[in-house]
Amino acid sequence: MHESGQQARAMDEYRACLERDPVCVDALWNYGELLRLREHFDEALDCFDRLVRLESRLRDKAAHRMAVCCAHLGQDDRAQALFEKQIAEDDDPLTHWEYAHFLLGRGRFTDAWPHYARRFDAGEKVGLKGMRFPYPSWCGQFEAGSTLIVSCEQGAGDEILFAAFLPSLLQRARSADMRVVVVCRPALVRLFRESFPSARVLGGMVTQEPDLCTIVKQSSIIRHIRIGDLPLWLDKPEPAAYLKPAPDDQRDARRLIASSRAGDGCTHIGIVWSANPLSSASNRRARNVPSELLNAWLKDIDGVRFYSLMPAEHCAVLAGVPDLHVTDLAFFLTDFSRTAAAMQCLDEIVSVCTSSANLSGALGLKTHVLLQKHADWRWCGDTAWYRDVVTYRQETRADWGNCLQALSANWR
């Protein structure tokens, strides 16, 4: 049942088995792993600890599983020891990936980046795919006449966050007479071209790499690096605004939004409460705030007007907030430059953990981020990446009450 995808039924069977036989070691092992995958880390760790006491040893990969549980439970010393034990045993890229998240989430960036660099070795195990280029890896050298291809990766939020390293890279590249080509998803091209004018910015996806023929002809020395590996060779920048939309988009956004806010004395708030509909169902359930809950918490706040910053595919969720004064801007949000321009016309931005939160932060805007209990490493503390971000993290898994109470208090 476990392997056939019937996890809920499998958990019931393992639980019943352990009630009959509390020392059934295989049931403890398998039940513990299902609990871990469902983020019931305290119960999972209890299963693994019981198993170790019974067998007087750690099973293969047990250190990895226990380390992940300890990391999420705040048992940092034990988590670190277990991660390092597993890496010493088999150098598993998946353990490097989880260890990197543990270190990054605690702001230990310098320690984390070498482990994070192993992420594509784990590949499909962690759902990562990246562009492949037939060029040597860049190792931090700035050579006159050379060309560096920086390829973006993972989600749009990752591309935006790691773009914080581009200003430093481009400044040093100009001094060394080195060309930089940035390959990002098409929806980011105009925003990145405006923000990083000394780079050549091309659109490309994992499944559709760009045509580099012209670039290849222009340089005899070409190297490549994924944008998430830039921290291996460049210092982490201080939080600052580093993105800006195209001037035409700024003009159009001002015309659009100015008419709705002229002289009304309200606080104008952009809001995103639904994650990428193309992401997994479990991911959406964890990140999304239910519309009816948002409606209940925000409906009676005077002096605010909301603007939906979600693209058209999210339009169905707007029906769930009938008591909010929400202006739908989906028709305007055709790419990230247009979205950035709209954000700049508003007073504050509220977002769940999506690329919109990263975009608002990278623009230097006042940003509120609603986070699930076990949010990812980018939001350690409030954030080490953006200068004007406040986070609201669930106290109990899947319960948004404390987050929405704290958020709504800002405008009451």
From TrEMBL:
InterPro entries: TPR-like_helical_dom_sf (IPR011990), TPR_rpt (IPR019734)
Gene3D superfamilies the record matches: Tetratricopeptide repeat domain
Lineage top rank: taxon: Bacteria
Repeat (TPR) residue spans along the chain: 25-58
Keywords: TPR repeat
Name under which the protein is recorded: Uncharacterized protein
